[in-house]
Amino acid sequence: MQPKKFNTVITILTVAFLAAVARAGVLSFDPDGSNNFASAIDIQEFDWGVGSILAKNALESPGGSLKPVGSEFTVYYQAKLQGYQLPGGNSSGGAGLPIGSEITVVAGFKEKVSFLSADRSSAVIEVVNDADNFVRIYFDSWSTSGGATTYSQPNTGLGFSDGTLIFDGAPVSGHTTINLNNPDTNKGAFNITAQASFLHADFFPNLSVNDLMLTSAGTVQDFGQVKNGTLFDTLNQSTVPYVAGSNDLVARSDVNSRTELLPEPGTFGLLGMCMMLVAGRRRPRRAA
Questions:
Q1: Contact 232, 157 (CB under 8 A)
Q2: Average pLDDT in the 189-206 region?
Q3: Is the residue at 100 inside a domain?
């Protein structure tokens, strides 16, 4: 193949490859589950309202410091959707939220203390792969839930894990950092990636579970407080909330979940073709 033609082919394949990869991060989401492309919106992140974190048995003693390096405990999280981040980085505000219903998230995952400072004010806590880890998103409609009493309730801590399950998955990697001496309200941060295992087709049209991962990044705020006092829904999913114990660490958190659409198999085929062409190209022989 002549050099000019070869370079043209490589350019075309490279552009096609980059275009396919560029789909990552833009998700078509139908917020009311009507399975209608006209009502679907393109989003890059789910923007959750200030939610609650509870690390069960994370403290060495009531009101004390975190347990030492190597200790494991389970962290729970719950919040209500307040908006989206749109392509281009703009916020939707409240636009695009379902009317007469709500979308909530609950999560539970095991973490292990991998670093603890000498004064026990700073820590790094890593996600541990565990069969019981989960991240679930629910859609709860007024017309099907029996009224607003089953919505997520700030005064009871209940209603975050009922309704229609639209996303199910599990954290596969991530970590949390804590700095109790930080003078700001934010006392820590976390970044956790979950792989989807179930997607409701009415809310995630034409999307396979193998395509989607959610990376949730947020801040840890106000230790000793949760959005709903010490009442927590996620542990038992019943009408009786879990009340945080003296060895539990509770906090508030502000979280965004970034959508990551994995490249389709054909994308990797394009990459392989480019590599094969480059590897197979021979330099012109020099005249003797």
A1: yes
A2: 92
A3: yes
